[in-house]
Write a structure and sequence with these properties.
Blueprint (H helix, E strand, L loop, with lengths): L16 E2 L4 H6 L7 H16 L4 H4 L4 E8 L27 E6 L6 E3 L11 H13 L6 E5 L9 H10 L5 E5 L10 H5 L4 E3 L2 H7 L17 H5 L4 H6 L3 H13 L20 H21 L30
Parallel strand pairs: 1-2, 2-3, 3-4, 5-6, 5-7
Length: 327
């Protein structure tokens, strides 16, 4: 953020205000074996500090945003019980109007998912182009891959059904078992050699990266509904029916998306023409704040974008949109 070209120290000139609080690093220290008050100590200090800042009154924090480098639920503890998970950062009154950028958002409307950082932080565009060329040449012997492990404590869950299909179709599916003590899931090569992934995390994030992925998911993914899986729709048969020319086009579209989900090395200056994840996230915040500002100036209620539990946020039932299975 400090390398962003359009920074200002004058909050009256700012289009949006970044809150420099390392929420994930903070709560990550205290998630286990610490009581709720300790987990809330730093967030309480933060909101106290924010409440005394003069820029707070401009839009009542609706122009503020922060980054939580964990899933959003880690900041939404719903009770004061020590056994409950996470902190109450995003439930504190002073932070309810802020926008939270996290690697996985919940159903609250003031959260937005941004891509999970990988170890690939290019310093120049040629490195991105080389990676894309490598992906185009890579042979993928499987139709689909599942990276994960069963959850026997949950009956009739969709994860176990997909694992079962994968195990019964070893010719077309690669199962990367992420069981306790397993190491294969920690090595990207074990997954990238198999296929574009379908996993318990990444399929959900495809639904959530609405700023970073195109609004035409059928161009790069195949929709198989949860109900379809429950009704015995076979993943391998569904994918085998896709014409070869369409598979090639969809794969190319996925490869073209690579720059949008990677974070360039912030010290680099050779990626000016590429739209990478950081720029897309910042532009998304600026667009959101700009719309909110216009709504407030014109007397409209901008509340729908802030601190409301939106049950339909990820509901794709009956629509061929983002809850897709990558091919």
């Amino acid at each position: 953020m400090k390398k962003y070209k359009c920074l200002t120290n004058d909050s009256s000139l700012a289009s949006a205000i970044f809150v420099p609080f390392y929420a994930g690093l903070n709560v990550g220290q205290y998630l286990w074996a610490y009581n709720a008050s300790i987990r809330d100590a730093s967030p309480l200090e933060l909101v106290k500090w924010l409440s005394n800042r003069p820029e707070r009154k401009t839009m009542w924090v609706k122009d503020h945003f922060l980054v939580g480098d964990r899933i959003a639920w880690d900041f939404r503890r719903q009770t004061d019980s020590d056994s409950d998970w996470g902190s109450k950062l995003m439930f504190m009154p002073e932070s309810k109007n802020m926008t939270l950028l996290s690697i996985e958002s919940s159903s609250w409307s003031n959260e937005q998912a941004i891509p999970y950082p990988t170890y690939f932080h290019p310093t120049k565009e040629s490195q991105v182009s080389e990676w894309q060329r490598r992906m185009r040449k890579l042979k993928r012997p499987y139709l689909f891959t599942f990276a994960g492990a069963p959850r026997p404590e949950y009956k009739e869950n969709i994860r176990d059904m997909v694992i079962s299909q994968c195990q019964s179709s070893t010719k077309h599916c690669k199962l990367v078992g992420c069981y306790h003590g397993a190491t294969k899931c920690d090595d990207p090569l074990n997954v990238i050699k198999a296929a574009f992934r379908f996993s318990s995390t990444r399929d959900q994030l495809m639904v959530q990266y609405t700023w970073h992925f195109p609004s035409s998911p059928s161009e790069y993914s195949v929709f198989i509904s949860e109900n379809g899986i429950r009704e015995k729709v076979l993943i391998n048969e569904t994918l085998l029916r896709i014409p070869r020319h369409k598979v090639v086009a969809m794969r190319e579209q996925v490869i073209r998306l690579i720059p949008r989900i990677i974070y360039a090395d912030p010290r680099a200056s050779g990626l000016e023409t590429l739209e990478v994840a950081f720029n897309i996230a910042v532009n998304g915040v600026l667009d959101k704040v700009d719309k909110t500002r216009r709504d407030m100036e014109e007397g409209r209620d901008p509340g729908n974008a802030f601190s409301q539990l939106k049950a339909t946020k990820f509901d794709m039932t009956g629509t061929e949109t983002r809850n897709e299975l990558p091919r």
